[in-house]
Structure formats: structure tokens, C-alpha cells
Amino acid sequence: MKRINYIFQKYISPLKTSKFIKNTFSLFSGLFVSKLIFLVFTPLLTRIFSPSEMGEYAVFLSLSTIIAIFSTLRFEDAILLAKSKRDSQSLAIISLISSIFVIILLFIVIFFLEDKISKILNINSEFLFLICISGFVLSIRETLINLLMKNNDFSRVAINKAHNALGINSMQYFSKSILGFSMLSVSKVIIDIITLIPLFFTYFSKSSIQLKDFLYFKLKKIAKIYRNFPLYNLPSSLINNISQNLPLLFISAFYSLELAGFFSLATRVLRLPVDLVSQSVRKVYYNEASNLQENRLEMFSLYKKVTSILFVIFIPIFLIIFFAGEEIFSIILGNEWSKSGQISRLLILWFLMLFINAPSIVSFNILGKQKVLFYFEIISLFTRLLTLYCGYYFYNSFEYSLLLFTAGSVIINLLIIIYIYNQLRQ
Q1: Interval 256-315: pLDDT, tens
Q2: Exposed, middle or buried by CB within 10 Å (0-12, 13-18, 19+), for 212?
Q3: Rounded to whole angstroms, how far apart are CA atoms 22 and 4?
Q4: Using CB atoms within 10 A of its CB, is residue 181 exposed (0-12), middle (13-18) or buried (19+)?
Q5: First and final CA of the chain: distance in angstroms?
Q6: Which of 145, 213, 350, 359 would you call most buried, defined as having the most Cβ atoms within 10 angstroms of its Cβ?
Q7: Distant-in-sequence contacts of 70-74, Cβ < 8 A, 24+ apart
Q8: Nearest CA among 223, 228, 227, 247 for reference residue 373
Q9: Do the beta carbons of residue 359 and residue 307 sit within 8 Å?
Q10: Under a CB-based contact definition with an 8 Å cutoff, are residues 47 and 178 in contact?
């Protein structure tokens, strides 16, 4: 009994007052609701939308996310590292200004090269402007979310994510089932804009931006302090996102939109635990580890603990997908989508690495090693492109492309984890 009390007092009781646990749970609860909404609506959506339509929507999401990453120059990531509230607001202003300039530039390019771009990307030309708008809205959304998290307002972020998921899925389903319109992409843009409004009011009800925050010399000074983000974090994040979406874009271009649809559904389902648990932990770990920059020993301890816990959490998911993935997809989503279950088995090791490497990726920013991460991402991009193309060129096989891609991705992620482990241990 004494031993049990000792364990409770040492390990369980501190969790009740742990700031890290509370913030993680706040984000986790919001993401849990949003992913639960996705799980509820997915069997409905797969019965009214074809794999080709889902594939086209997945390409839309991929391209809009890439634009969102590029448009802010990644200054929004620096918000959580800012030394003061004023600095974080200045970084948000820089992100907004950058996004506006990038979107205007993209509109000009699309206006003159619309047909050529749509042919290269294998999508309808009318989607191009919508993709840009979606990317712009996403960039503003991420900036506001980071501002709220800097103020430790994690619950508001979680609630907004849940509302966003409910709105998007509801509009996609009812617009098709009742009105007969296929509005997968349009629904997302509309709801993203609507749910952006509460984020504005939530932040500015507690904070104010003064005119001096817009002064050129002030913004220039802040941009110079955090110049590593556009110099190294931006290329790294951009390359990483392209690498993550490369299989989908490759499949739609070299195989078919139908296979892209099967692939996109498999990755969306497998990404549920990554988004639900790993990314919640990642954001809170980023905030907590940033405060431990001067205490490398404590940061190393936190890193090992978080990475180990993530690994243990994913083991049951790995076993379920590997042994029963195809059956689960067929029963829940319909026989037409059994192919997605087969694909999930080929990708499960890749998602294991995505799940456990979240603390490693953000540690590059905290340690000021963005340049090293950039090199890793360059190697990763070429490795993934090479493995996908080898599967196509030598075997003309969709499955071989995915197997080789997974193998290359696992190796790269293992090297990243080993590198950060050794850096923190020093």
C-alpha cells in the first residue's frame, strides 16, 4: 500500500496540476471532437462521392496547404518563441503582410498562365484561384491560432477546430445529398472563412495592437531577429510539405485520380492519430521546450519522455491496421473502398515515424538548427521522388511505388530522431 501511495504521489498527482498536461488535453479534446466528426461523416461522404472526386479534393487540399506555408514565410512559427507579446504581434503583422503580397503575386501569375498551370497540375483551371484563396485563409488562421496559444488560450483554439470540422463536413454532405452539388472544395473555403471570425474577436478582445506595431523599422527589426525562419524554416517546411504530399500528386499525375482518391482516404484515416495526439503534443511541447532552452538537461528529459510515450501509444494502432486494415475499411466505408485498406497497410510504418518524430521536428527550431533540418528535408524530398519513380519506371506498379516510398521515409525519419537525440544529450 505504501508503494502504491508513493507511485501515486510521485507520478499521478503532479499530472493534475501539470501545465503541460492541461494544455495538451485542451488541444487534444478539441481535435478529438473534430476527428470524431470526420469519422462520423466519412462513411456518409464515401457513399455519395466517387474516389475520383475525393482524389481531386485531396489535390486541392495539398496545393492550398503548400501555398499557406509559403505565404507567411513561416514567421507565424516564430510567434511561440517571441520574447514578448509585442514581438509576437509584430510577427503576426509580418506574416499577414507577406501573405497578402504572395497571394497577389499568385493571382497575377495564374491570370496569365492559367491554362498551362492547370494542364501541368492535371486539375480544372477554375480551381486555381480557389486554391489561392484557401491558402491565404489558412495562413491567417494558423497565425491567429499561434497568437492564441502564445496567450495560453488553448481551449479557444480547440473549440474553433471542432466548429470548423463540423461546418466543413456538414456543408459537404448536405450540398451533395440534398442540393446535388459537388462542393467539397468550396465548402472548405467558406467554412474556413466563417470560423476565422471568432479567432479574430477572441484575440483582440483581450489584446490590442498599437500604431507603433506597424512601423517599418519595428517590423524590420523583428524580422531580422527571426530571419532564420524564412531563410531555413520556410524552405525546410515547404520541402517537407511537398514531400508529404508528393505521393498524392505523383499518383494523380502518373497513375489516376481514382487511385489518388483511394490513397487520400487511407492517409486521412491514418493521419487521425497523428493529428489528434501527436500534433497536440507537438504544439504544447514546442511551447514548453522553448521555455527550457537554457536548461538542456530538462529539455532532453522532456524530449525522451514525449517521444517514448508517442511510440507506445501508436503500437496498438499499428497492429490493428496491419492485420485488419482492409476489412475495417470495407465494413465502415463500403466495399468500394477496400483498396484504401490495402494502401493503409503499405503506409503504416511511415505514419508510425510521423507520429513519434513530432518533438524532433520542432526541436530543430528551438535549438536553432533550421539549416540542418533544411538539409534533411532536401534529402528526404529527392529520396521520396526517386523511390516513387523507381516503382513506376521499373515495375509500373502503384504498390511498389508506395512500398519504396515508405522505406525511404522511415529511414530519413529515423536519422532525424537520432540526430536530435544526440544534440540534446550533449
Answers
A1: 888 999 999 999 888 887 777 776 677 778 777 777 766 777 788 888 888 888 888 889
A2: exposed
A3: 24
A4: exposed
A5: 40
A6: 359
A7: 70/102, 70/234, 70/238, 71/98, 71/99, 71/102, 71/103, 71/135, 71/136, 71/139, 72/98, 72/99, 72/139, 72/142, 72/143, 73/98, 73/229, 73/230, 73/234, 74/229, 74/230, 74/233, 74/234, 74/237
A8: 228
A9: yes
A10: no
Cβ partners under 8 Å of residue 196, min gap 6: 137, 140, 141, 144
> pTM to 2 decimals?
0.79
Q: Would you state the cell numbers that stand for residue 203, as one nine-digit string?
A: 484575440
Structure confidence at residue 231 (pLDDT):
86
* Residue the block writes with cell 484575440: 203
Q: What are the cell numbers at 356?
A: 513519434
- Give the number of other CB atoms < 10 A from CB of residue 219: 16
Pairwise CA distance, residues 162 & 140, whole Å: 18
